[in-house]
Please model this.
Amino acid sequence: MSEVMPDFQLARPTTLDEAVVALATPEARIIAGGTDLNVQLRMGLAAPATLVDLSLISALKTLESSTSGTRIGAGVTLADLASDERVAAYYPAITEAAALVAGPTHREVATLGGNLCLDTRCLYYNQSHWWRKSNDYCLKYQGDICHVAPKGNRCRAAYSGDLAPALMVHDARLEIIGPDGIRQVMLADFYREDGADYIDLKPGEMVTAAVLPPPKGPSGYRKIRVRGAVDFPLAGVAVEAEETKDGKRFTIALTGTNSCPIMVDMPDVLTDDPNAFFANLNKAVQKAVSPQRTTTIAPHYRRLSIAAMAARLARELV
Ligand SMILES: Cc1cc2nc3c(=O)[nH]c(=O)nc-3n(C[C@H](O)[C@H](O)[C@H](O)COP(=O)(O)OP(=O)(O)OC[C@H]3O[C@@H](n4cnc5c(N)ncnc54)[C@H](O)[C@@H]3O)c2cc1C
Model:
């Protein structure tokens, strides 16, 4: 990473209204903790005219919990999220996922909003400018071809945020503010299976909070990564287990294998034949994912690992 920061204007709004005004300026881009975006700026992957720094907006930093649910501001840091006792008690998958993002110093400034809106990643994209130039760039930025799937017509970069699946199994909604006011969207509907166009944010919009209903049951999060102390998920899985009148029902969400986090279609409840049930669960996860050559780790290994992690975690929650 040898490149210098590009020139930009820095806007530092202190209210949401000021932020919306700042985001309406041409080629404006949000910066929250900056732990991912700063790297991208240095690599020449983004050159916004204006950076809108959200760190002075106190309205984004609140975490409120009551019997009707929990609201986590987009500016809450992952360190605060990982150490919040209410979140740990009701939504353990979120606590576990937050604690596994990057390293401790990243988590001190990295935010929930930045994690949920994290750019997709690929071996051919997260590289220096000279590396990408010598490869004729790629479909995601400045090029015409996806080097991972050259015959396809979309970018295969992988969504690799840890928190999205953990919030998705708890039925999170996102609060979004923009030029047309405030709207809400289910987090599971916020993402698209397209590495170059992976979130449903219109120009000038920003995420203000995630809103969670009361939990249906216990949950957990597991991931595999190259460097155990600090790394993106090669594959990550969140599971929530709910006791229903028909038996135990599992909600499963995945990250790291596709261009968006995905929910697994799991119609069955845990039967009196647990071995058959967990074998089916393993198969359902393998069928749901489509890992590509976006990392140095083989797609097939990531497929098998995520399915094994899902089945193991579901068993642990019983
Ligand atoms: C060495 C290293 C290891 C890492 N490991 C992991 C990991 O294990 N797991 C993981 O998930 N991430 C990892 N990351 C990426 C990053 O640190 C985290 O995802 C972090 O949570 C990003 O949050 P941030 O506030 O720093 O976002 P920023 O870098 O400020 O922003 C990230 C993106 O989100 C957008 N954005 C930020 N806030 C909002 C908002 N409120 N509304 C709309 N858009 C917004 C920005 O415009 C930008 O596109 C790693 C990064 C590094 C450098």
